[in-house]
Automatic annotation (TrEMBL):
GO molecular function: DNA binding
Annotated InterPro entries: CenT-Element_Derived, DDE_SF_endonuclease_dom, HTH_CenpB_DNA-bd_dom
Protein name: HTH CENPB-type domain-containing protein
One cellular-component annotation, GO: nucleus
Pfam assignment, any one: HTH_Tnp_Tc5
PROSITE patterns reported in the protein's UniProt record: HTH_CENPB
PANTHER family: PROTEIN PDC2, TRANSPOSON
Domain HTH CENPB-type: 42-114
UniProtKB keywords: DNA-binding
Length: 249
C-alpha cells in the first residue's frame, strides 16, 4: 500500500526541531529556516541573488571608484545595466528598480556618507615625484629658515546644524559669508607670522575706532575676499622684512 502523506501542525514541527536540537543532530537548512519561522514569524527571509556575477561586478565597481568620483543611485543603476549587457543577462531577469538597488546596497553595506576634507584632490603620483626634490632642496637650509604657508576659509556666520528642541525642526538657509585666512610658520615652530585676513570690506564696522595696524594680524580686502597675487606679493614683502630676507624681484 502506498504511504499516506501526513501533515504536521506547527506545534508538532516545533517539537521536532526542539528534539533535534536537544539530541545534537545536524539540522538541514530547511529545518533551520523552519525553526526561525516558528520562533520569529515576523523575520523577513532574504531571497537569493538572481545574478551573482552581476552583484560581484557592481560591488567591485563601487570599491574601485568610491575614492575617485562621486557615486549616486542613478550612476549605480546605469552601471548595472551596462554590466548586465556585458554578462548577457536576459532583460526580463532584473528590472533595476529603486527597490532592487536598495537591496543591493543593504547586502553590501553601501550607504550614503558625507565627504570630509580635500585629501582626495591631491595627485599622489605628482607628490611621489616631487617629494625627493623638495627634501633635497630643504636639506640646504636649517629648519628655522624653512617656512610653510597655507590658506583656509572662515565662515564666521555659519550656524551649527544641530540644536536642542522638543520636536523636529526645519533648518534655515546657511550663510556663506566668509573670510580668507593665511597662516605661516617655520619648520621648527620658533617663528609664527601674524595671520593674513582677507575680507570684503575696506573698513569693516567691527574695526570702528580701532587702529588695525596695532592688531596682531595683516588685513586686506577685495570684492570676494579671495587671495590674489597682488595681495600675496605684498604680504610676502612684509614677511621678508620681518625675517630679514631680501626677496628677489
Amino acid at each position: 500500500m502506498p504511504k499516506k502523506n501526513i501533515s504536521l501542525s506547527d506545534i508538532q514541527k516545533y517539537e521536532l526541531c526542539l528534539y533535534a536540537r536537544d539530541n545534537k543532530k545536524t539540522r538541514t537548512h530547511k529545518e533551520k529556516r523552519l525553526t526561525t519561522e516558528l520562533a520569529n514569524p515576523e523575520v523577513k527571509r532574504h531571497k537569493p541573488v538572481a545574478v551573482p556575477e552581476l552583484e560581484l561586478a557592481l560591488k567591485e565597481f563601487v570599491l574601485c571608484y568610491q575614492h575617485k568620483t562621486i557615486l549616486s543611485d542613478a550612476i549605480l543603476i546605469e552601471k548595472a545595466k551596462l554590466l548586465a549587457n556585458e554578462l548577457e543577462v536576459p532583460q526580463e531577469t532584473l528590472q533595476f528598480s529603486n527597490g532592487w538597488l536598495q537591496k543591493f546596497k543593504e547586502r553590501n553595506s553601501i550607504r550614503q556618507v558625507k565627504l570630509h576634507g580635500e585629501a582626495n584632490s591631491a595627485d599622489e603620483n605628482a607628490i611621489a615625484e616631487a617629494l625627493p626634490l623638495l627634501q633635497n632642496k630643504c636639506a640646504e637650509y636649517p629648519p628655522d629658515r624653512i617656512y610653510n604657508m597655507d590658506e583656509t576659509g572662515l565662515f564666521y556666520r555659519l550656524e551649527p546644524d544641530r540644536t536642542l528642541a522638543t520636536k523636529r525642526l526645519s533648518g534655515r538657509k546657511k550663510s556663506k559669508e566668509r573670510l580668507s585666512v593665511a597662516l605661516c610658520a617655520n619648520a621648527d615652530g620658533s617663528h609664527k607670522l601674524p595671520p593674513l585676513i582677507i575680507g570684503k570690506y575696506a573698513n569693516p564696522r567691527c574695526f570702528k575706532n580701532v587702529n588695525i595696524g596695532n592688531l596682531p594680524m595683516s588685513y586686506r580686502n577685495n570684492a570676494k575676499a579671495w587671495m590674489l597675487a597682488t595681495i600675496f606679493q605684498k604680504w610676502l614683502q612684509e614677511f621678508d622684512y620681518q625675517v630679514g630676507i631680501k626677496h628677489d624681484k
